[in-house]
Amino acid sequence: MYTTRFLDVPPLDSVAGTVRLPGSKSISNRVLLLAGLCEGETVIDGLLASDDTEVMLQALAALGCTVERSGEAVCIRGIGGELPVREADLFLGNAGTAMRPLTAALAVLAAVHGGAFRLHGVARMHERPIGDLVDALRAIGCRIDYEAAPGYPPLRIGAAPSGLHALDAIRVRGDVSSQFLTALLLALPLATAGGSSARISVDGELISKPYVGMTLQLLERFGIAVERDGWQRFTIPANSQYRSPRTLRVEGDASSASYFIGAAAIAAGGQPLRIEGVGLDSMQGDIRFVDAARAMGAQVDGGAGWLEVRRGTLPLRPIDLDCKHLPDAAMTLAVLALFAEGTSRLTGIASWRVKETDRIAAMATELRRIGAAVETTDDSIAITPPAEWRAGAIKTYDDHRVAMCFALAAFSRCAGAAPALPVRILDPRCVGKTFPDFFEALFGVAAARPDDIPVLTIDGPTASGKGTLASAVAARLGYHLLDSGAVYRAAALAASRAGVDRDDEPALADLAARLDLRFGADGVWLGGDEVGESLRLEAIGSLASRISAWPRVRRALLDIQLAFHRLPGLVADGRDMGTVVFPVARLKVFLTASAAQRAERRYRQLISRGISANIDSLRADLEARDARDQSRSVSPSRPAPDALLLDNSALSIEDSVEQVLAAWQARTPFG
Ligand SMILES: O=C(O)C1=C[C@@H](OP(=O)(O)O)[C@@H](O)[C@H](O)C1
Ligand SMILES: C=C(OP(=O)(O)O)C(=O)O
């Protein structure tokens, strides 16, 4: 997951390969709650791991359920209609699928058993309506109080003064959020133990119907057969009891699929993109996004648990669609509309106003930012593609879907934008709500022209602090990091292990070409050994400096270094990154510091690691290495003519990082 302040998605061209989707949020949280209310164990496979499911898991644990995680599976031992914990303060983030159903379940449980619960979330959750659900629960005797604004969380739930009643005439509004009805359907089986059935009538037109359909299907998996009369009346039979199916597999998220279906509908490449985890047999209503994408021109094949999507007609055909049945994936259509010939209109989206943000306002503002003409009403949005695309820094309003759907704007070349533009996604961490690795998944299947993948090089002499600077800059930009010195040191380590003479150029080059080197979050691996520490040894550093003078060694190690040039971008540090390896780098920094400063830094570094050192000999060694690096015949270490010279002798690390980032920013269209 990218936790940077922003993520620049370079202009993307094509998609190919296979993407495997994370589990459905809506299924995950329903199944978790049902498993929590059951007796005994339920093993859930393929559960979504994200902010929304994490708050549900934490809540279940706080309420006395046993939660055991092993790999992709989670085992829940439920409370079986009892209430072992009678008091809890539950933080539910911004998860509607946790807040609404838990409110109903705890209100009914507390009415039967007593208890005191507080339910709250992030600031936006306290602006998302829940009044209609609370009214319905109060009407049957539940005790729920608003802690702040009436109609909104935080809520306090307590014992019902006079028990539950009027179960046969429950009314709930259906036109604000279907989650109110879903919450009642999931919780009210708990109220039927005394022999009364529960009858719910929906006031107003029910929106997001497929989500209620999913609730009914999952209730059935847990032994509850709800009778229904259209989408207006629902009856939960008397003495309904949750019965665990014991094991259950969560399908991939159909709303998450929409970003990849969308990408494949517009991207070049001719290859289909395979999407696994969700297919045409899905129980999720948002799978109907496939119909909308086909109507716009995409070619979609599919079966049980898979889809294959390729570009059909481009420009896409504009669409005019009532989106009440697919509120979430409809946001992806709003961005696909940028690739259509003419104006698209999405209607029936009033519920967008009360979701993670006011999504109608947010989408209009951000679509306009990149050049579209947009008109909105209370429940619709009309989008006309840009006459001229603009590079935009997209505000995401802590809304995962804004972040994910605007990533598709990076395919602007496919809409004819010239030049093609990158898109900046502000606060990309918000995708953690439902798809923490969304951008990693996108970069795993998308391809960009090499020239469009940005590179920032930081070259400089030994101990100038370029490694520290490069890794800090890479972390701030969310880019890959190439420590090319480590590549040379790994070759030196391999040579010293294999006993190859430091002057035997052909043997060294041969060894370098076969280097089995991997940089990972778990360290630097040479063959089967983690060698991070060994690479820092002074002796290996000196040997690296010697063998790197051989042209054939440098050539052999070039491919390893070039392979780091991947989406979304690269920060490369070394001696010849800007001059030889990445001459097209957008920003080349040449970092220096006085020899005295560098010797001092190296000295402190060694002492802090418990290695004894002599500052004068360190300095002499540094100067000898500088002379060798500057005078070698191949790739001598010197600034590229267009390099930014930065002397950091008197700068803190933070100051150097800020200076480099400012220079970088000035080279982006977001400056
Ligand atoms: O029940 C559900 O799982 C959901 C229902 C929909 O909300 P509304 O019913 O509020 O439209 C949807 O937007 C949300 O992401 C998940
Ligand atoms: C509306 C959404 O979430 P929630 O479940 O919090 O309502 C969503 O995921 O788009």
From TrEMBL:
3-phosphoshikimate binds at residues 25-26, 30, 177-179, 208, 328, 355. Its main location: cytoplasm. InterPro entries: Cytidylate_kin, Cytidylate_kinase_dom, Enolpyruvate_Tfrase_dom, Enolpyruvate_Tfrase_sf, EPSP_synthase, EPSP_synthase_CS, P-loop_NTPase, RNA3'P_cycl/enolpyr_Trfase_a/b. Residues 457-663 form the Cytidylate kinase domain. ATP binds at residues 460-468. One of its GO terms (molecular function) is ATP binding. Its EC number is 2.5.1.19, 2.7.4.25. It comes from the Bacteria. Residues 13-442 form the Enolpyruvate transferase domain. It catalyses: dCMP + ATP = dCDP + ADP; 3-phosphoshikimate + phosphoenolpyruvate = 5-O-(1-carboxyvinyl)-3-phosphoshikimate + phosphate; CMP + ATP = CDP + ADP. The active site is at 328 (proton acceptor). It is found in: Cytoplasm. Phosphoenolpyruvate binds at residues 25, 96, 128, 179, 359, 401, 433. Keywords: Amino-acid biosynthesis, Aromatic amino acid biosynthesis, ATP-binding, Cytoplasm, Kinase, Nucleotide-binding, Transferase. One of its GO terms (biological process) is chorismate biosynthetic process. Belongs to the cytidylate kinase family. Type 1 subfamily. Catalyzes the transfer of the enolpyruvyl moiety of phosphoenolpyruvate (PEP) to the 5-hydroxyl of shikimate-3-phosphate (S3P) to produce enolpyruvyl shikimate-3-phosphate and inorganic phosphate. PANTHER family: AROM/DEHYDROQUINATE SYNTHASE, PENTAFUNCTIONAL AROM POLYPEPTIDE. Monomer. This is Multifunctional fusion protein. It comes from Piscinibacter koreensis. The lineage of its organism: Bacteria, Pseudomonadati, Pseudomonadota, Betaproteobacteria, Burkholderiales. The gene is cmk.
